[in-house]
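Practice problem: predict the structure.
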Amino acid sequence: MFFYVFKFFFWLFFLSLQVSFFDKKQNNLLKMNNIAIFASGSGSNAQAIVEYFRSLGENPVKIILSNNKNAFVIERAKTLGVECIIFNKDDFYHSSRVIDILKERNIDFIVLAGFLWLIPNSLIDAYANKIINIHPALLPKYGGKGMYGMHVHEAVVQNKEAYSGITIHFVDEKYDNGAIIFQAQCKIEEGDTAEMVAQKVHQLEYAYFPKVVRQLVLNRPIEEVLGVNQ
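Answer:
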């Protein structure tokens, strides 16, 4: 009888150790993946990312930063209850203010969601392979300086492309030049306007960008959630 009682309590003790180890591992994982989102405009992708994580009971987006004091993303951040800070060119290119803000909040990962300025080398060095961007076209086509928003969609339609889509990529010192992580495409029908293409591309952004971000910050294969690139 004593043997069975001892065995029962031994397994309870062993199980408690396993649960404790798992909880600590999960907590460490979450602590290592605080996210900052940079946005210059409406912020619909920023909102989609925040809401996607929250739907899973997670809250890694700690701050939204904008270079545009009139951007609607600021209102979205207030509604979401996410801290939002506005910065200017001097802050970004000629001081350490932005990096200091990120470090003070233990940010590990940066997501560019409609952010239009070129990233300075100081920020790239501080967050090597930890900055990603989404571009509203199938890079390497229709990338580079000046290729953003409706400029991209108008060029795609003008050139009678059969497909457009999204590209999620790492960020380096050039516009839209970093290694491609994921692409998804949509078919352009005859008669589609630039506005219609924009709507199709937005749907791809909302469907895939939050999922790709989550997989990257958790260091998990994107294929687990997304399957083969579309």
